[in-house]
Amino acid sequence: MEYNTERDEMIIPEYGRNVQKMVEFALTIEERDKRNAYVNLIITAMYNVNPDAKNIVDFKHKLWDHLHIISDYKLDVDFPYPMPDKQERLTPPLPLKYKNSDIKFGPYGKVLELMIEKIIEMEDGEEKQLLITLIAQQLKKSYLQWNRDSVDDELIFKHFEELSKGQLKLNEDFRLNTTRNILNNNNSKKKTNTKNTKTQKNTKYSASGNQKFSNHNNHK
Q1: Are residues 82 and 10 in the same domain?
Q2: Which domain holds residue 71?
């Protein structure tokens, strides 16, 4: 019995061991015409075992590149695309540089922090005061998405003050929406979206059925 631990390591596991064996056999074919024909069969097999490849831009080019890699760039056949650079593949990619975007409070994310900074820069007026109240309400909504068990309004007010560095003031009579109302609204939106999705699907199926019925009558 042959165990996987005793077999050669698979170069690209997505294509399976049979494709790799086909490539190994192609390397032993001496006649170029036969080798070319056999390699095209391998490309077809690679597509059949990995049909999702068609969703990749220029997927045929990608299959040929993978064939090069599996053969360790040793196949001598008529390729429809330039051979990829082996050294380029072996060279590790450069590390990505991320912007310094420390988030003060995880539940709110960076976008809300940036919005608060923009509101601070606005001139005083009704529009600014409206945005202040909307941001405060959004802080509570965001916090509830992060922790649905409990939320203290005083904690939200404290976070609001820290994020705005005390430069944004809420009206004395301002009240945050209750936790129950926020959660109920979220549940209602989910139910509405689910209902709309089902309605769209039913409409699509109904339209398809009517079209088929119409086509059938036209052929009578």
Answers
A1: yes
A2: 4-90
**Co-location of 130 and 65 in the same domain:** no
Both 84 and 102 in one domain: the answer is: no
As for how many domains the chain has, the answer is: 2
Task: For the chain, report the end-to-end CA distance as a whole number of angstroms.
Answer: 63
Residues 6 or more apart whose CB falls under 8 angstroms from that of 166 comprise none
| Same domain (yes/no): 119, 67 | no
57 — phi, psi (to 5°)?
Answer: -60, 130
Burial of 147 (0-12, 13-18, 19+ CB in 10 A): exposed
| Per-residue tokens: 199 | 């309605």
Confidence of residue 200 (pLDDT cuts 50, 70, 90): low
Whole-model pTM: value is 0.44
Query: Smallest Cα–Cα separation from 176: which of 160, 189, 188, 163?
Result: 160
pLDDT value of residue 213:
46
